[in-house]
Specification:
Shape: elongated
Strand order of the largest sheet: 1-2-3
Helix content: 25-40%
Order of helices and strands: HEEEH
Number of helices: 2
Largest sheet: 3 strands, antiparallel
Length: 87
């Protein structure tokens, strides 16, 4: 498949994040990360652990943030696709 948008450097994606919040879901191994962009748009990522005995909150936060950043990357690539000249 042909890519119509160049990969977005991690530093550029990070610059889009104004703040982040984490929400552990009580009595579960689910962690939710919400990244807020400069425009106020929230981007969410989630993580969960299959085995509660192995749950690590730090790892859960990292994985949830990685998923949120991946979604932000997709959204930013879509937005940038409109900035490119059409043939």
């Amino acid at each position: 498949m042909t890519s119509f948008v160049d990969p977005i450097p991690a530093a550029e994606l990070e610059s889009l994040v104004m703040f982040e919040e984490y929400f552990p879901v009580p009595n579960t191994t689910i962690t939710i990360c919400v990244l807020s962009t400069a425009g106020g748009y929230p981007v969410r990522g989630e993580s969960s652990c299959r085995n509660p005995a192995m749950f690590d909150a730090v790892v859960g936060r990292r994985l949830a943030r990685e998923k949120a950043m991946s979604r932000l990357s997709e959204l930013e690539a879509y937005r940038r696709s409109f900035d490119r000249p059409r043939p």
